[in-house]
Amino acid sequence: MIDISRKRQTLRVATAEAFVKVSATAVEKVMAGKLPKGDALSVAKVAAIQGAKMTSTLIPYCHPVRVTHVDVHFEQTDSGIRVVATASVIDRTGAEMEALTAAAIAALTLYDMLKPIEKDIEICSLKLLSKSGGMSDFAEPLCEQLNAGVIVISDSAYRGERHDTSGVEIVRRLSELGINVVHYSVLPDDEERIANELKRLCDVEGLDLIFTTGGTGVGPRDRTPEATAKVLERELEGVAEAMRSFGGERTPLAALSRAKAGVRGSTLIINLPGSKRAVSESLDALLPWLFHAIPMLKGESSKIHTH
Prior knowledge:
The chain is α/β, with parallel strands linked by helices. It is built from eleven helices and ten strands.
């Protein structure tokens, strides 16, 4: 199976359809609930719901997901019955296979219940109609090039005693998303120097986005949150909570992070942990939806349709 552990859980909805081609006489009997085996539509609906919940058992490489809702309805047409199934899940992967399975099982159930009165039955046109809720839906279409800065905060890296890997990871991830990283620096765990550099990058350089890495723990020299707090004009508590929540699903040590996030002017500032792995996981938690804040900071409307 594909590893989906790096994905965030979101509400994901998919709709699929199937078509059962059958005679007009048979359709009338189905809609009236007068088949020898009983009320075909009610039975097919229950079967579809069961099918959606059992998709990962039926389809080998489908991940088990938390199905929160299944809706099935039937439409009478001149040439048969159209089945439309919608599945909702709150999980790390989408609901399209659940919706397709629901539609298929409903169609098969209708076939089974129609057999006693109809010999020429055809199931056709099983297809996905729509899906939503994946992280790509929360990717803000950027109208202009964003400029970002990365500050590595570490006494040992500043003295040249170790090579930085976490800052390099941030640069790589941002570059992959088309973000222009115009500043990269390494500073010691010095509260005043960190605060002054943040102010300069916001007020003088006018960067859109700044990530720091390191100094967010409980060590005696960990002062990045304090330095950041001096600079922020508005704090975004939910951003830091999102990182800790996502990290907490992987290690309880994530709760020890004191990272802050917020805004100064029109610049977004985010504290990330100091290790490469923790940085990667934190970025998994934040990207790409974090960029939703950028146009808002500039007084522009976001292009993401929120609920």
